[in-house]
Amino acid sequence: xxxxxxxxxxxxxxxxxxxxxxxxxxxxxxxxxxxxxxxxxxxxxxxxxxxxxxxxxxxxxxxxxxxxxxxxxxxxxxxxxxxxxxxxxxxxxxxxxxxxxxxxxxxxxxxxxxxxxxxxxxxxxxxxxxxxxxxxxxxxxxxxxxxxxxxxxxxxxxxxxxxxxxxxxxxxxxxxxxxxxxxxxxxxxxxxxxxxxxxxxxxxxxxxxxxxxxxxxxxxxxxxxxxxxxxxxxxxxxxxxxxxxxxxxxxxxxxxxxxxxxxxxxxxxxxxxxxxxxxxxxxx
Length: 284
What we know:
Blueprint: H1 3-16, H2 22-34, H3 38-43, H4 51-65, H5 70-74, E1 76-79, E2 82-85, H6 98-115, E3 118-123, H7 129-137, E4 141-147, H8 150-162, E5 169-173, E6 184-189, H9 204-207, H10 223-231, E7 236-245, H11 251-260, E8 263-270, E9 276-283
Parallel strand pairs: 3-4, 3-6, 4-5, 6-7
Antiparallel strand pairs: 1-2, 7-9, 8-9
């Protein structure tokens, strides 16, 4: 089959299935499974595609038409310049979470400039995205990633290895702080924060393919923040910070939880759409 024909067929299948950005998704899938590029599509539209690649592409297109997200099909996603592999029990890292990395990074750089090193704790690490992005940018830092899922911990460990960061990253299985010991310069987390009743209303790509445990924040979406706010001080250096991702309407409630536990709001950041996304706290 010619490349141009495969691209056209793929676009048509996704458009018929009602997939937003059908053309883009088709191009990404075709390029990945056929080993071609945008340059090939423009300059060599008649190039022949191996039948096995055609079959793999058609299978992937069928999965996308059924609602599975593109990056779940590919098995990886780029995050802060890193290639991160996904698994069934990891949340797909999204660009909005890079806001958390951006918020913490300048502080970490000042920390290592003053003290020579720093130690991070990533609660609910999933793919390891936040911790690994920070380690990649701050060579003097080390990190511990915590997750309740063995699958997620294995994936985070693989991502650390694949990105050359395994010597500075360790993963432990724990229900939040239960198995965590010692103190850290920074505690970071993108916890589940969606209200339980809202899960059924999420986009199909999220509702059916992201792990529910990484989404469901309890009846009011604040369960994880209560735990983090109540227990963070026992694991934080006196002048350390806590940075958390939040839902766009949770700034006030999450801030109150941390203030009641002896923290003060140091910084609030918005995401790419201008919505409240990250809160950074220091100890009083």
